[in-house]
Amino acid sequence: MDSKWLEDFLALSQHGNYSLAAAERHITQPALSRRIKALETLLGVPLFDRTTTPVTLTRYGERFEPYARHVLGTLTEARHELSAMAPATDNTLVMVSLHTLSVNVLPDMISYLHQSEPQLNFTVNASIQGIDNHFNALIDRQIDLLVTYDLPSSQPGLEIAGKLKRSLWRYERFIPVISSRLAGLVDDPEALIPWLCYSDYTFVRRIIEPAEQRVRGRLKKVFDTGLSETIREMVLRHTGLAWLPESMIAEELVNHQIIHCWPQNSALICEIPVVVWANLDDQRAVMRRCWDKLLRF
């Protein structure tokens, strides 16, 4: 569970209005709605009655509210205590990325930076929930670099955008794939194809959903998860079709363990920029050198 979800929950409980709560949290209304839904999915109960105006807590939400306040209070206390214990360091960069990018993109980026900064250490935190809540962490200097896909729906709010800088790293392609053993299902227009999909709350699902909808009539959902490497393993175990980052399955495509489905249909290929965000005011020498190197990539 992300602690930001608890802060979102308390903001919506206080305001009873998604727009006001989103404004307080410095995120978009759709992002707030997704995060509240993810919290409800995790807990397995509805926390808000959305049929009322203003939005009100359900009996589950009323029971959960004091727990949320207690957890956040304890985390804040622990954060302050640990922060006081931690010595300042200039040879470690803290990076946050989507879980998918931590598997197939961050290793390349870290290796690239290490070429000119061999003394540099890296701390990597992977998130499966998207990056809406991490922009503020950049502003607060809790993290140094944020690596994410670049979508119009996932940009920093206007009130903090001017405090951040962005650099393009590369482009990633999500393609529909299936194991070679199941490839015959794709060629049979009457066959339903077992479908391995990303959970609704994930960032990747937003990227590939338009492509999925183009062949939705051919797909029968049999599995969903927030982790791309789990979906990759299920594809290799002949469980169904899925959209995966091309860089994650390059070797399997070459040796024909996995087949690119409908390769002639470009509408089913989702190409998305991968970008790096940093705090504009971070003037540490090591950050300036790393940022200059990223700009030259």
UniProtKB/TrEMBL annotation:
Gene3D superfamilies membership: Periplasmic binding protein-like II (3.40.190.10), Winged helix-like DNA-binding domain superfamily/Winged helix DNA-binding domain (1.10.10.10)
Lineage top rank: taxon: Bacteria
UniProt GO MF annotations: DNA-binding transcription factor activity; transcription cis-regulatory region binding
PROSITE patterns (alphabetical): HTH_LYSR
Membrane-crossing residue ranges in chain numbering: none
Protein name: LysR family transcriptional regulator
A Pfam family that the UniProt record links to this protein: HTH_1
Key word Transcription regulation present: yes
InterPro entries: LysR_HTH_N, LysR_subst-bd, WH-like_DNA-bd_sf, WH_DNA-bd_sf
Entry similarity comment: Belongs to the LysR transcriptional regulatory family.
PANTHER family, per database record: HTH-TYPE TRANSCRIPTIONAL REGULATOR (PTHR30126), HTH-TYPE TRANSCRIPTIONAL REGULATOR YJIE (PTHR30126:SF2)
Cited SUPFAM superfamilies: Periplasmic binding protein-like II, Winged helix' DNA-binding domain
Domain HTH lysR-type: 1-58
Annotated keywords: DNA-binding, Transcription, Transcription regulation
